[in-house]
Amino acid sequence: MARILQFPLTSLFRSLSGAHGRSSIQVTKILHDRVEVSSNRKSLNGFRTFCTGEDLSIKKCVPCNSNDIRPMTEQAANELIPKVPGWNLVNETDTLKLNRSWKVKSFTKGLELFQAVADVAEAEGHHPDLHLVGWNNVKIEIWTHAVGGLTENDFILAAKINGLDLQRLLRRKAAT
Ligand SMILES: C[C@H](O)[C@H](O)[C@H]1CNC2=NC(N)=NC(=O)C2=N1
Predict the structure, then answer these.
(1) Residue nearest atom 4 of ligand 1, based on CA coordinates
(2) Residues having CB within 6 Å of any atom of ligand 1
(3) 125 — phi, psi (to 5°)?
(4) Which atom of ligand 1 is nearest to the CA of 127?
(5) Residue with CA at minimum distance from ligand 1 atom 16
(6) Per-residue model confidence (pLDDT) at position 121
(7) For a tag site, which of 44, 52, 60, 115 has the least CB within 10 Å?
(8) More confident of the two residues 104 and 2
(9) How far apart are CA 114 and CA 128, in angstroms?
(10) pTM above 0.80?
């Protein structure tokens, strides 16, 4: 069954001549700078990884309980952090974590933000630590508890949270 995959045009041709050249890949649509292709490859693993390497928000978290998951190195985390703008990479007593803070309009808007994030977390089976302090200060921390550090799941969750439309819940930035 052909699957539609999207990825930046620039990286398409670099790969088609590579390992994926063997697949019968058909360019079905060129959207602005992104190309949709369909491929009849059964295992799209290489292709999937290649296609979604650019955009974490369309990847899926994997169950954290598989034994072969190890926390990523600080170097690997530093390479991924640019893909999740707004998120900070922190090292808390040798545990790498992601965190991001927002000022919300009200305590209840903070809870609405938590609910929106919770819906994503439940869909992914991967969960953040939620903090709401001083009534309107929200901080979200993400790390993989099962391994005591960061895995790609954490970056996928952060990217999906970045994809939420939270503007209506946030206090306007004070004019500088
Ligand atoms: C089996 C399932 O993957 C685990 O229970 C999940 C649930 N959500 C999780 N969320 C986070 N952040 N870390 C985990 O280790 C974790 N484990």
Answers:
(1) 64
(2) 63-65, 125-127, 144-146
(3) 65, 30
(4) 10
(5) 126
(6) 98
(7) 115
(8) 104
(9) 10
(10) no
Q: Which domains does the chain have, with CATH numbers?
A: 74-167 (3.30.1360.20)
Give this complex's ipTM. Answer: 0.95
Question: 63: CA distance to ligand 1 center in Å?
Answer: 7
Q: Could you tell me the distance, in angstroms and rounded to a whole number, from the CA of residue 73 to the centre of ligand 1?
A: 19
For Cα atoms 89, 95, 101, give the angle at the middle one, nearest 5 degrees: 40
**Alpha carbon distances (Å) from 12 to 22, 23, 169:** 14, 13, 38
- Tell me the residue type at 51: C
62 alpha carbon – ligand 1 mean position (Å): 9
Burial degree of 86 (CB within 10 A; 0-12, 13-18, 19+): exposed
Question: Closest by alpha carbon to 54, among 120, 9, 4?
Answer: 9
